[in-house]
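User: Design a sequence. Structure:
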């Protein structure tokens, strides 16, 4: 009887272990990935600041790289001086217009007084004609001087457009990190020459990482976007880390499949990619293998 009890206990343990192995088998496998962004230079020049290292976490809006701006600053100073000279010329024109307007105002007042004298017979028609001619001459002079200011205004607009362009070039020398991210790789170092389109560094937001796994056609009807699943990642050779993940994308097309599927048996053997968003505790890395339990 004692031997029989031992045999039954051993059988129960083996059965439990067998069930554990069966239940512990994952439903899908894949690798972790993230959206990687390559930050490139937009202008040419020597790199005079590079404030990042690989593996560093950097905040959005942080100035991480500066390309030499001395040439642009010199051109901006030259443009400001040119604008000041244009303003001086414009001021002279407006001064002339102001003087002519004063002369016109005086002539108009003289005309009013002369009209009263003309009505009383104390002024002649010749005097009236002379004052009217004088006013017409002043008005023509005002128009001529105003016409001199038109090209000056156009020149000022061109200088302002040039200054705006220089400001844009100056901003392009400042490489600002676009998002909270981790530096994956640097492609340039301090004192090296940058060129438009030359990659400077590569970043990715690893706060939430994606497990891209693959499921069979037979599994596909049992999963949908928004499902909460169990995600496993290697902790060591014997243990796994467990995470909670959310399915947020299911491929609409099968992968590694023939173009024409004729039978149901073939259809259920197709492989579909799914993406699962996982909150990263810092242990998950790009390319690391992962498993899913639905």
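Assistant: Done.
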């Amino acid at each position: 009887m004692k031997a029989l009890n031992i045999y039954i206990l051993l059988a129960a343990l083996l059965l439990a272990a067998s069930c554990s192995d069966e239940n512990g088998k994952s439903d899908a496998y894949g690798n972790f990935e993230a959206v990687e962004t390559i930050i490139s230079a937009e202008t040419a020049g020597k790199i005079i600041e590079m404030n990042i290292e690989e593996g560093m976490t950097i905040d959005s809006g942080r100035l991480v790289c500066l390309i030499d701006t001395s040439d642009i600053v010199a051109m901006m100073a030259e443009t400001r001086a040119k604008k000041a000279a244009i303003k001086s010329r414009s001021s002279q024109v407006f001064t002339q217009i102001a003087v002519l307007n004063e002369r016109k105002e005086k002539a108009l007042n003289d005309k009013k007084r002369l009209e009263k004298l003309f009505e009383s017979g104390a002024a002649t028609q010749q005097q009236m004609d002379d004052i009217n001619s004088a006013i017409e001459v002043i008005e023509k002079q005002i128009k001529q001087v105003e016409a001199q200011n038109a090209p000056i205004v156009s020149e000022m607009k061109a200088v302002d457009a040039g200054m705006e362009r220089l400001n844009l070039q100056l901003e392009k020398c400042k490489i600002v990190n676009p998002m909270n991210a981790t530096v994956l790789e640097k492609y340039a170092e301090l004192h090296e020459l940058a060129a438009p389109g030359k990659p400077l560094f590569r970043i990715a937001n690893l706060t939430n990482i994606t497990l891209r796994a693959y499921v069979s056609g037979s599994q596909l009807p049992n999963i949908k976007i928004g499902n909460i699943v169990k995600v496993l990642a290697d902790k060591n050779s014997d243990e796994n880390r467990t995470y909670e993940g959310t399915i947020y994308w299911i491929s609409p097309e099968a992968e590694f499949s023939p173009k024409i599927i004729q039978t149901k048996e073939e259809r259920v053997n197709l492989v579909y990619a799914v993406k699962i968003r996982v909150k990263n505790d810092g242990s998950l890395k790009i390319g690391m293998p992962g498993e899913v339990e639905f």
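The longest strand covers residues 240-250. The chain has a mean pLDDT of 86.
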